[in-house]
Amino acid sequence: MQEALIIDDNRTTADALSQMLKVLGFKSRVAYGSRAAMSVLGTGFTPRFVCLDINMPGVDGTEILAYLRREPRLIPVPVFVITSDDQPETRKKVMKLGATVMIIKPATIDTLEEALKKAKMS
User: Fold this and answer.
1) Total structural domains in the chain?
2) What is the DSSP string of 46-108?
3) Which of 27, 63, 86, 97 could form a disulfide with 3 if both were Cys (CB 3.0 to 4.6 A apart)?
4) Which domain covers residue 99, as residue numbers?
5) Are the beta carbons of 101 and 122 closer than 8 angstroms?
6) Any idea what the CATH number is for the domain that residue 59 is in?
7) Tell me: the pLDDT tens digits for 35-75?
């Protein structure tokens, strides 16, 4: 079974997402921040989909998203941006960069299930 990749610098949020995905039948790897995410992705790991926070210290989620859309093996991987930033400019930016869907925190099992349906994974 392929795993999802959760990228969020907030451990509580990342772990909660992991548990919700488990309930929905998905395994996941968790990267607590951008540096950890790049380390995981640098191993050649290709996730089934990515849950990505935007507001992280250092390299933010939009830079990670841009990387995911430049890296040939990761281009087809759906990306669910999960953020507390509900500004229209942010939504426009992440969708232009190639996000599959944007979910406003706190994510719920229902919003994750909707994102999975949109990505044709459920």
Assistant:
1) 1
2) --S-EEE-S--SSS-HHHHHHHHHHSTTTTTS-EEEEES---HHHHHHHHHHT-SEEEESSP-
3) 27
4) 3-118
5) no
6) 3.40.50.2300
7) 999 999 999 999 999 999 999 999 999 999 999 999 999 99
